[in-house]
Amino acid sequence: MKPESIKYISLTIVFIASLALTGRLVQLQIVEQKEYGRESDKNSIKKIIETPARGLIFDRSGNILVDNRPSYTFIITPYKFDKTLTAEIAKQLDIEPEYILSQIAKATGTNKFNPIKIKRDIDFKTISYIEENRDRLRGVSYQVESIRSYPNKFRGSHIFGYNSEISEKQLADSKEDYYKQGDLVGTTGIEKYYEKFVRGEKGSRLILVDVNGKEIDSYNDGRNDEKSKNGSDLLTTIDSDLQEYAEKLLQNKRGAIIALDPRTGEVLCLVSKPDFDLNIFVGSPDPKKVAGLFADANKPIFNRVTQTKYPPGSTWKMMMALASLATGKITTTSTISCPGSFQFGNRVFEDHGAYGSINVVRAIEVSSNVFFYKLGVMLGIDNYHDYSEMFGFGKRTGIDISNETSGLVPSAKYYNKVFGENKWSQGLLVSLGIGQGELGVSPVQMAAYTAAICMNGMYNQPHIVRRIYNSTTGQETPLVFTRRQIDIPQNYFEAVKKGMYLVVNGSGTAKNIKSSEYDLSGKTGTAQNSNGNNHSWFVGFAPFDDPKIAVCVLGENAGWGAQFAAPIAAALMVRYLSGNTKDIYNESSGAEIRD
Amino acid sequence: MSKKLFSKFDIVLFTAALMLTGIGIFAIYSATHGSSLGNTSGTDYYLKQLVFALIGIVMVVVISYIPPKYISRLSYIIYIFAIFLLVLVLIFGKTINGNKSWFYIGGFGIQPSEFAKIATILAVANYFYRGDDEKPNYKTLDIIKASLFVIIPAVLIKLENDTGTTLVMLTFLIPMFFWAGVSPFLLFAVITPVASVILAYLNPLYLIIGLVVLIIALFFFKKGIVLSLLVLVLNIGAGSSVNYLYSKLEPYQQRRITAIFDPSTDPLGSGYNVIQSKVAVGSGGLTGRGFLQGSQTQLKFIPEQWTDFIFCMIGEEFGFIGAVIIIILYLIMIYRLINNAYITKNKFLSLACVGFATIYFFHMFINIGMTIGIMPVIGIPLPLLSFGVSSLLTSLVMVGIALNAYRHKDVFI
Fold first, then answer.
1. Residue A481 burial (CB count, 10 A)
2. Chain A: residue nearest B274 by CA?
């Protein structure tokens, strides 16, 4: 084509496109001018974002655990706001003027046209102040918003978790484009884990407002509106009575309790103490109180059930027994001599007693250390690591609470990294054999492990929520939790369980918690702690023949397993099996039995 | 004397650009004054624009005198520097309204993607430039290489989440190919699959109609059965893969795509702006409501009006007459850009002018079109009018190079 033709063709295209624009302008500005002019004269359109109520949370019997209540939120629309009012408003709301200014400064771009939430849950006096001074307080208003309430006799702080205003970092990281400054977002617990379902979907309304910002009517009869969708409800597996009881058991103590239904992995109760009052985070949280919680040396925010990483002590011995049986290092009848101490290289490892030649059942009953020192060495680091993983250690259990530790199961690779290639001795396996050393486990891992043992190797993923249900749409979101069979012969489990039965009902380390009514089984453990008193562990299940509950109790710096954890675990199991009626707990029933 | 002066200086292009820049400053003043917008008070916007307009005009004059061969030699270096900035902004940039395309230096937001437009046009022009005498014979590989010049920055800009500027980057290549003398059939083979994708997305029936038209066109090209079938298969393949790819996207991504073609499906986002700006433009009438008198503009009902939606301020306060004057000024500019491409004897600057003309046209048509509700809202500024230091300087530098082409229209490199 000749350049000249191209030139004229291009110019023609440009001209026709400009004519199209002009034609549209004729339509808008001349033909339909009256209509648009009227709309513009009287009023203008404003967009209101509607945030739906979060879904509710129920216990396993259908009682409400986490509810909503209406509240009023003080809002400022930055582009209209007269900054000279800042001091006056700060005084009225009892907050710092700098806070208001910093919130306004955060709103950039189109966000200046959206109201910013300054304070939630304001009182009636403040509302009348806004109404009385409406003409003067440009850009200031309030809106109804639902906020959390907790109508319980217990706290459940670490189960539910709290909601807080979305942080700038979260806003920047969110690739979804959903949240706006000032939005509430689930920050811990199941509120965070199921955030996408619980929050619902925001909607919007276009309304006609006059020059003073007063609402006149809906725009286009609401045809451009998008209704907000309420959040879905979470139906949990929590047993409220048991949870309340468990929280009482740990009152003024430091530790963790978790109980599972071993048949399904459902969490019956979950307590981490010290805990905190979720109401502190509701409405407009007092920054001092919140900072106080985070600065507290006892770490109340920290979830000891899922985030602690301590050596399990003697509660580890079932794992050692099963791994050794499965790899053929021992049989259920073979015996090992346990003379009261064990020499490896030139180091001597002590035991709390001499038991003669004993088999694995007896070794668990009396919690012989020498027996398991020897198993540690026999098993070797690779088997040790592989079987630990099989029982869910060294990785997350997948419980539906964010922030779970995977713990630590040492491997050859790990020691090579820490000490250098082959620069570490097999002697490390001696301590690992009795659940000490570098090994780190969390209470939720221990509970799932105990549940798997009592179910003869059926390992269920622990979980708190069993259904997600939207009561408005009737829509149910399916939840799938994993279940797997650990590949170890059944009779090995039977032997180990027999040992656990004798721990309580024989001459074992937890004979102080024997119950005349229920067949409790379990294992004590004491985690050596170089920084203070030892940590007390107990894992158990009941009834022996048909397990309905598996528990793990941890007491920080609370001494021997039989001293602190065992009586609490026993009380909890009896409470549950008695239909939440019996209370056998007696703090002085703890016994200083070495394990 | 004066005649000689103007034979070297494109006074028409210069005046039109100057007028648009001046009107822009008034429009920005009207859209921002008297409000406190976050940290910046309203007056800052038009003052900033004014200062940079003055700097830009000085640049225009200086650039128009640079001997073309230096521009040609520098073009690859400028291009590499632009790519470097695009990478840098991806790593260190600041996110504004979801686009990570900004540097903040001393209170000024700088958008490397704006400068990348000029850099890329110059690089492509330089690549196609093979001396002024012979008529070059471009091979397919040349087309691919030249396309890479565009695709690299386009991908980087897309990663910044700036879809509007990415689309702009993809527009000027075809006209420049055309102007360079690349075979029309090759261009046809490249463009039609893209058209098929869009048609298939809108409605499968449109795709079928498009394919029928394609077959007729292929018949007229008389390129032989193999090539023709290849183009046809390419089109069918592109068109039929759309639904599959679309179904692979996350729901929120699907929503964004749908909203490009139909803003009313996204009342939370772009749909709101379109409704507001239509009311603003419509209420302006024939003569407008007068400077600083438009209620939509003055009540700040239109988010970001001083940038991408500046045209609705013109429409509301200066009316139909004002709006048409703006369109005529752009028409004059685009006419002069195309004309300069036509009369300039050296192919490098000639090609650059074609690229600039495309950019001006695309920005003008899409931006005004989205303001009055006939084009998708893709967030690109109105050259010279919209607030924005990077956009303003880029638009002015283009004018400067076009003036240079006019001054050196008889000079071979």
1. 16
2. A45
What does the pLDDT look like over B37-90, one tens digit per residue? 434 455 678 888 999 999 999 999 999 999 999 999 999 999 999 999 999 988
Cβ–Cβ under 8 Å, residues A555 and A532: no
Select from B278, B239, B247, B288 the least CA-distant residue to B371: B278
One domain for residues B23 and B138 = yes
Give the domain range for residue B135. 2-180+266-407
In a domain, B228, yes or no: yes
Domain ranges of chain A: 3-42, 47-193+195-231, 240-589
Separation between Cα atoms, residue A485 and residue A412, nearest integer Å: 26
Q: Which residues of B touch A224 (CB under 8 A)?
A: 264, 267, 271, 275
- Assign B20 to helix, strand or coil: helix
In a mutational test of the A interface, the residue from B33, B36, B270 whose CB has the highest number of chain A CBs within 10 Å is B36
**Cβ partners under 8 Å of residue A579, min gap 6:** none
Residues 188-247 of B with CB under 8 A from A: none
Q: CB neighbours (10 Å) of residue A109?
A: 14
> How many domains does chain B contain in total?
2
Task: Starting at the earlier edge strand, list the strands of the sheet with A203-209.
Answer: A44-50, A203-209, A215-218
**Residue ranges of chain A whose pLDDT lies below 70:** 1, 38-45, 108-113, 209-216
Residue B319 tokens read as 């009316």
Question: Do the Cβ atoms of B315 and A41 come within 8 Å?
Answer: no
Q: ipTM > 0.95?
A: no
Give yes or no: residues B284 and B221 share one domain: no
Give, rounded to a whole angstrom, the gap between the first and last alpha carbons of chain A.
95
Cβ-based neighbour number of residue A482 at 10 Å: 11
| Residue A172 structure tokens | 């920047």
CA-to-CA distance for A550 and A445, rounded, in angstroms? Answer: 12
Instruction: State the CATH class of domain A47-193+195-231.
Output: alpha beta
**B282, A15: Cβ pair inside 8 Å?**
no
Residue A44: burial class (beta carbons within 10 Å; 0-12, 13-18, 19+): buried
d(CA A418, CA B277): 65
Q: Which of A24, A35, A172 sits opposite B374 (nearest CB)?
A: A24
Which range among A253-267, B73-87, B346-360, B375-389 shows the weakest confidence by mean pLDDT? B375-389
Provide, as residue numbers in chain B, all residues whose Cβ is less than 8 Å from the Cβ of A23: none
Chain A residues in contact with B316 (beta carbon < 8 A) = 40
As given in the structure block, the two tokens for residue A562 are 């039989």
User: Residue B115's pLDDT is what?
Assistant: 93
CATH for A240-589 (3.40.710.10, 3.30.470.20, 3.30.530.20, 3.40.50.720):
3.40.710.10
Contact flag A33-B357 (C-beta cutoff 8 Å): no
Question: Predicted confidence band at B133 (pLDDT cuts at 50, 70, 90)?
Answer: low
The rounded distance, in Å, linking the Cα atoms of A285 and A119 is 9
Following CA atoms A561, A563, A564, A567 in sequence, which dihedral angle do they give, to the nearest 10 degrees? 100
CB contact under 8 A, B374 and A224: no
- Judge: A224–B35 Cβ closer than 8 Å, yes or no: no
Chain B residues in contact with A18 (beta carbon < 8 A): 327, 330-331, 365
Residue B321 token pair: 């007459």
Q: Which range has highest mean pLDDT (A121-135, B88-102, B397-411)?
A: B397-411
Distance of CA A403 to the CA centre of its chain: 6
Q: How sure is the predictor about B36, in pLDDT bands with cuts at 50, 70 and 90?
A: very low
Q: How confident is the model at residue B298 (pLDDT cuts 50, 70, 90)?
A: low
Closest CA to B19 of B327, B376, B406, B366: B327
Q: A507 versus B142: which is more confidently predicted?
A: A507
